[in-house]
Amino acid sequence: FGDPASNLGLEDIIRKALMGNLEERQE
Amino acid sequence: RRMYLGCPMNTAPNIDSQKSGHEVWDEFMHSFTPAVREVVEFAKKIPGFRDLSQHDQVNLLKAGTFEVLVVRFASLFDAKERTVTFLGGKKYSVDTLRSMGASEFLNSMFDFSEKLTNLGLSEEEMSLFTAVVLVSADRSGIENVNSVEALQDTLICALRNLITKNHPNELATFTKLLLKLPDLRSLNNMHSEQLLAFKIH
């Protein structure tokens, strides 16, 4: 799994939530 | 060697030995992802936050999400009972968590939670304080520091006005709240160390 700090994918979650990605929200 | 999960955003500290590392990780992300999304939704509602550049919004959120989550989940750490409630709903005593290898970080969380609870903030005060926490996050990577600082000043001013109005006989409350900001920064640093030391196999 490597480094969990980057694997948490924080930036990706933040970007998607900021853009209001509906597809991601429905997961 | 048995492994345990110290973060109460897990269902429980014990890891089911039948589960693979991927399953344990997925289960954690199942709690973590919506919690981060809630922080983002909260940030979007802070007046002025959406006026920052998208780059600065992302970077503030990256730096401040953990600190906001600490404020939001502080009540999971019951300093009087000396228990931590995991998201599965079960409480675990300090002694139990210590026997599982919990570090000094646990004590710091209890200390923070107790001091925050003792301030007896209303929902509105807590919300405004949380907004201040977010915009006071580490500035590294921020492009327009002046805009972030102007937003921080506006929110701190609003928080001071609200606290002064609601607690006229407790002038120290506002100061105590502002002193929570460096406490949160320390907790964030301690947590980062824990996270970097964490390996799942």
What does this structure look like?
The complex is a heterodimer of chains A (27) and B (201). Chain A has 27 residues and is mainly α. Chain A is 67% helix and 0% strand. Chain A contains 3 helices and no strands. Chain A starts with a helix and ends with a helix. In chain A, 11% of the residues are buried. By secondary structure, chain B is mainly alpha-helical. Helices cover 62% and strands 4% of the residues of chain B. A 3-stranded antiparallel beta sheet of chain B has the order 1-2-3. In chain B, helix 1 crosses helix 2 (54-72) and helix 4 (105-118) runs antiparallel to helix 7. The longest helix of chain B is centred in the C-terminal third of the chain and has 26 residues, at 172-197. The mean pLDDT of chain B is 92.
Beta-strand residue percentage of chain A: under 5%
* C-alpha end-to-end distance of chain B: 11 Å
In DSSP terms, counting alpha (H) and pi (I) runs of 4 or more, how many helices of chain A? 3
Rounded radius of gyration of chain B (Å): 18 Å
SS-based class of chain B:
mainly alpha
**What's the SSE pattern of chain A?**
HHH
How confident overall, as mean pLDDT of chain A?
Answer: 70
Q: What structural class results from the helix and strand content of chain A?
A: mainly alpha
State the helical fraction of chain B. 55-70%
C-alpha end-to-end distance of chain A: 22 Å
Question: In percent, how helical is the residue content of chain A?
Answer: 55-70%
Number of strands of chain A: 0
Mean pLDDT of chain B: 92
Low-confidence stretches of chain A: none
The geometry of chain B reads as: globular
Largest sheet of chain B: 3 strands, antiparallel
Oligomer: heterodimer
As a whole number of angstroms, the C-alpha radius of gyration of chain A is 11 Å
